[in-house]
Amino acid sequence: MELEAIDDPDFRRLVDIAQHGPGSARRMISACVAALNGLISLITIAGVLAVLHPVLLPMLVLIAAPRGWGAMRVAQERYVSVMSWIEHVRASRLIGNLLTERTAAQEVRLHAVGAFLLSRYERMAESAEAEQERLASSKALTEWAASALSGLAMAATYGAMFWLITAGHMSLAVAGTAVIAVRTGSASLGGLVMNINQLHEESLYVRDHGRFLTQAGRRTLPVGGAPVPERVEEIVLDQVSYRYPDRDALALDGVSLTLPMGSVTAVVGENGSGKSTPMKILSGMLLPASGSLRWGEADLTGLDRAQVFARVGLLTQDFQRWPVTAAMNIRLGRPDHPATDDDLKPSVDYAVAGPVIAKLPDGLRSLLARMFRGAIELSGGEWQKVGLARTHWRSSTSEADGVLIVDEPTSALDPEAEIQAFDRIRRLAEHGTHDELIAARGRYAAMFGAQAAQYAPTATVPRPSAPTVSDQV
Ligand SMILES: Nc1ncnc2c1ncn2[C@@H]1O[C@H](COP(=O)(O)OP(=O)(O)O)[C@@H](O)[C@H]1O
Ligand SMILES: [Mg+2]
């Protein structure tokens, strides 16, 4: 999916609803088989009844029809209720999880959030219960009416048979057979109606699942496209606007930004002013609503997105803490790249994560997932080093020029560690052989040029252009 789909509450709702689909599809198969069985036995009984007396057949339909109507109505109502309560169910499940989640555990206790959440949960459970009660009484009423109508039809059938016997149109022996046939027939017709009805109800969920698949198909990340050029001079956001799906206001309104490769650009602004959003745009995760994004000459829309992603490194404050081993946590910076522990060592050293790893019982093989037994939890600062090692692993395994996005990664660190971290992050920005770096004409080339110029024999040698570093902090 495009990242925007994940941000879109309507789509998330559809994802929730679609969860019912596969189970329903499976249940439809057994309902289909049962309906087929019911149909066969009904045809047999209908044959018997038609032979016994032609009026018995329509009477049988009259007996079963109200039950069919009732079952249909109940199913519809249940479906409508499930649809309108789906967010409620999700919210109360969320509250339930918050009460037991590790990340919330401290505030749940210290801030007495536990009691607060519990009272919310109770209120939500009560209203859900009230809805179930409403459904149940409505179901009871419908079924009562259906049974009454069906009972009337049954009485009419027996009345008609009584009349047929007394009028001499039907022998007692035939009537006895007919009573059994009517009873069996109405039971199997009732069963058939139930099965067809279940098919109908399940099909509503399957249809929603289909709707989800269509939407999802429309919102998948495109595969293929033009390759991203080996050398990209600059990345340009041109008059880019973007609005998050559930927001009225634009998050970005006509933003233009040129990022020369090999330079460092700092984006400064208040919280929520729109710093992270343009980063998601320039890395191809979000598509601009208007305006354009260019990687070199190429517009992003024509480029192979997977290749664009492959060129981007990301280190954020809330980077993913994968519930896997320490080694895998680093490797997941580029999972398709094979790695032994030795291969990961430079990344560990780079992030000064060595002491953190050394403290773990099984070193890099230690599981960092507190939900499993025997796993270990790291502190915020320790995790940050693992995150930095991952970012290093990602950029050290990439062959082409790329962008490194560093989004407030050090907010969890003390000032000294922050300076150290930024010092290291800076060194991530460029790597390659001398020739590659000169060809990239970035900071390395500019500095090399400046240094070389000092040894220039005459002043006629052109001075190197100003470094392209634009530290706008
Ligand atoms: N996933 C999202 N869904 C909806 N609105 C968002 C989302 N992410 C950010 N926003 C909104 O977009 C605006 C810009 O956000 P962002 O770029 O993250 O700001 P910054 O990084 O400068 O703090 C804010 O008003 C924020 O509330
Ligand atoms: Mg941000």
UniProtKB/TrEMBL annotation:
Residues 26-201 form the ABC transmembrane type-1 domain. Its main location: membrane. SUPFAM superfamilies: ABC transporter transmembrane region, P-loop containing nucleoside triphosphate hydrolases. Keywords: ATP-binding, Membrane, Nucleotide-binding, Transmembrane, Transmembrane helix. It comes from the Bacteria. Residues 235-473 form the ABC transporter domain. SMART domains: AAA. It is found in: Cell membrane. InterPro entries: AAA+_ATPase (IPR003593), ABC1_TM_dom (IPR011527), ABC1_TM_sf (IPR036640), ABC_transporter-like_ATP-bd (IPR003439), P-loop_NTPase (IPR027417), Type_1_exporter (IPR039421). It is a multi-pass membrane protein. GO terms for molecular function: ATP binding. This is ABC transporter ATP-binding protein. The chain crosses the membrane at residues 144-165.
